[in-house]
Design a protein that fits this description.
By secondary structure, this protein is α+β, with helices and mostly antiparallel strands. The chain has one domain: Cytochrome p450. Helix content is 51%, strand content 10%. A hairpin with a 2-residue loop joins β6 and β7.
Length: 456
């Protein structure tokens, strides 16, 4: 078999670069080896092949399951966090069943019912900050997305269960997004370091407490069903598969955790990046404000969602800083040909979202934040794929789009913010995903007088 070329450094050194400096590592590999390259993270492991060519990505993400599979075992790094029943860690028929049960709450009228939660939560969080007080933007966006997800998923408002679970989830996320615990998953020997071992023990304790709270909520809801409830937990409790079987408590627990973590951390980071770029480039802010201020009074969420320039800003944010660097990995089941290479059984393929979004031939001057590119051209699902693709495409993408757009519209329409950072903020690894390499500091200069009363 003829594999694509790749770096010749020892496998352990390649692993270190991937764990601690992934974007520079990917860029270096692409510069030397092109659209498709092979890396070795362990000497005895199957080859791991990164792909950034749209035509090859299309083949990978649409291939017959007899040729390529997307086994949940390849995502085992999240099993300790999300559980063995998560849609991210299961495969085959089981994966199809879980996706079918999870999809309905994220479509149509159900989605629109979450709009008021998003706008109310955004307003509540942002108005806590006095004028001219500097704050860490990502802390604010995390408060917004966690508040939204707690109400949308659990229907929890201002009670003790909400506060306890929010506190635990924040702790778990902060530890999980740190580089130390992430590195342990790839380099287990690091757990012998006392501080790392202590962090791991603290993480386990937090997870167990959160587990108890979530199971308690599940049991209480099963005992006292409310047909009028529209939160996702209530909908999932009522859902059944094609044989009439509902989710088990264990399946519900793991899927709820998946929704909480995937829908909170990622959206908070993307929202922080969007507000950073909007306020870093005055022309972007001016165009966006002109579009928002031109709205009729009290527009509905669908009108805001469809705003062209707001959508372009949203898309460009996830292009230049995709929160997920790669698609879910696929594994070769029967030898296949890809971009002129014959790939062996067990080879692992992953689409590099980061490299694809920074291709000069698709996005000229890719390191510039330029929303207009999404007004000038429509990109294919294999040129622009911030939520992955194929059978493993993110279930919550529509929810994330709605939440980001409504939150941006709410904040910009009502507040004049100022970016305090003088140096550029760059992306870095934060556990499984990416995030800013330093705090994004902002302050509220004043409340805006919204002429159209578009958003209040």
């Amino acid at each position: 078999m003829h594999l694509p070329s790749g770096p010749q450094a020892p496998s352990f050194f390649q692993l270190l670069l991937w764990v601690f400096n992934p974007m520079s590592f990917l860029e270096s590999c692409a510069k030397t080896h092109g659209d498709i390259f092979t890396v070795k993270f362990r000497s005895q492991a199957p080859p791991f092949i990164f792909v950034s060519k749209p035509e090859a990505l299309q083949q990978i993400l649409t291939s017959d399951t007899k040729e390529l599979s997307a086994p949940g075992e390849l995502n085992k790094i999240v099993k300790a966090l999300l559980g063995e029943n998560s849609v991210m860690t299961i495969s085959g028929k089981e994966h199809e069943r879980q996706r079918q049960l999870l999809m309905p709450p994220f479509h149509g009228e159900r989605m629109r019912s979450y709009s008021q939660i998003i706008t109310d939560t955004t307003q509540k969080v942002i108005q806590q900050f006095p004028i001219d007080q500097t704050f860490n933007l990502r802390s604010v966006t995390k408060d917004i997305t966690l508040g939204v997800i707690m109400q949308a998923v659990f229907g929890l408002k201002q009670d003790q269960s909400k506060f306890e679970l929010e506190h635990l989830l924040n702790e778990i996320l902060e530890k999980a997004s740190g580089i130390s615990l992430f590195a342990v998953a790839f380099i287990p020997v690091l757990e012998k370091i006392p501080r790392v071992s202590q962090m791991r023990e603290e993480q386990v304790v937090c997870q167990q407490k959160a587990r108890e709270l979530i199971y308690r909520e599940i049991h209480e809801r099963r005992a006292n069903p409310d047909p009028s409830s529209t939160d996702i937990l209530s909908l999932l409790l009522a859902a059944t598969d094609e044989t009439g079987q509902p989710m088990t408590d264990a399946e519900l627990h793991d899927e709820l955790l998946t929704l909480l973590f995937a829908g909170h951390e990622t959206t908070a980071t993307a929202l922080a990046w969007a507000l950073y770029w909007i306020h870093k480039i005055p022309s972007v802010r001016e165009k966006l404000l002109a579009e928002l201020d031109n709205l009729e009074p009290n527009p509905d969420s669908t009108t805001i969602f469809k705003l062209p320039y707001l959508n372009a800003v949203y898309c460009e944010t996830l292009r230049i800083h995709p929160v997920a660097m790669s698609t879910f990995p696929r594994q070769v089941k029967t030898p296949i040909s890809l971009s002129g290479y014959e790939l062996p059984v067990d080879a692992v393929l992953t689409g590099s979202i980061y490299l694809t979004h920074h291709r000069e031939d698709i996005y000229p001057e890719p390191n510039l934040f330029r929303p207009e590119r999404f007004l000038e051209k429509q990109f294919s699902p294999y040129e622009y794929l911030p939520f992955g693709g194929g059978a493993r495409r993110c279930i919550g993408l529509a929810f994330a789009q709605l939440e980001m757009k409504l939150a941006i519209a709410q904040i910009l329409s009502n507040y004049e913010l100022e970016l305090m950072n003088t140096k550029d903020v760059k992306p870095k690894r934060r556990g499984l995903v990416t995030g800013p390499d330093r705090p994004i500091s902002m302050k509220i200069k004043s409340r805006r007088m919204v002429k159209s009363s578009a958003l209040v």
